[in-house]
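REVIEWER CHECKLIST
Item 1: Sequence provided? yes
Item 2: Single chain? yes
Item 3: Sequence as submitted:
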Amino acid sequence: MRTSLKILIPVAIAGVTAAAAVTCWSITSRHNVHVRPAPRYVEVARVEQSGHVKEIRLSGVTRAVQRAKLAFTLGERVVSRPAEVGDHVKHGQVLARLDDTKIVNGLAEAEASLREVEARISQVKRDYTRIERLVSRDASAAVELEKIVESRAVLLATKAAVEARVAEARRMLKETVLKAPFSATVTEVLVEPGEFAMPGASVVVLSGDGEVEIEVEVPESIIGGLSLDQSVRVDLPLAGRSDLVGTVTHIGRTALGPGRLFPVLAALRPGSPATPGMTAEVIVGMPSRQVLTVPLAAVINPGGQQPKLLKVEKGRVHRVPVQVGDIFGDRVVVTGNVRPPDLVVSGGHHGVLDGDTVEVMTHEDL
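Item 4: Structure as written out by the authors:
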């Protein structure tokens, strides 16, 4: 009996164990059935290739098309300067005067000399007429006539020289008065009455009425895309005015200094609300090369160091790192492993992981 018990107990235990194992296997099998997760619904958009017009903003300051820094050609003391900063002056209006005493005296002396020479010439003419009548009766009078002819030639030359002195004195007298060459506003005065004005040194600075222009400095990467008479948009940000129409009137072909910036002028149309001295922005449309764009909403972490897209292929999403470029409206330029007409997730990103199954919820032009 003891021997039987020793044999039977293990068998019984083994039987119980086997039964428990079978039971546990059955339970485990029922609870480990693989269940396919439901697909995520997302919105998608196509990757597009297109050429866009890139807007370049160039800052500058408005100024009058007609401008002048007026100066005297003579060096003399300023006796009056009626023009003041801010004054509006008309064409031909006197802006400043020099002391003209020396010039007036010189002109009077030259005019007196001219009258003297003219009187001597008149006398020579009378002598010539008188002696010419004697020549026919007295051959010796011919010598006297020759002398009168020579004297007349000398006097005529002297008269020409004196007339030149008179003309120069009158010209210099006019140069003592500084007049406005056009209607304008005085923007600067540099010499006060009583001061000595040096020849060529600015006395009054004018900003003319009429058309207004903006001078901007353009880098060499843009200068080649500009052309004369090209239309540009002009904004006056501080004045609250925008979308003014301008025209490129001058393109500098030589850079201003080592910064490789080229001067460009854009004139505003007559009747523009711009006045000289305003802050302005010239907006130039520059065609760009063919680029790939996606909706801005399709880019995950666009401002971070690792922006990416979720590309949809055969019902699954795949994460694609990209580089983000310029923004054109609601689309952005991207560079990466995408090309038209790839589909990318543009809505419903939250919780979608690389490799997830997705279904398109709404789509256009698919």
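Item 5: Key structural point noted by reviewer: Residues 1-30 have pLDDT under 50 and may be disordered.
Item 6: Recommendation: ____
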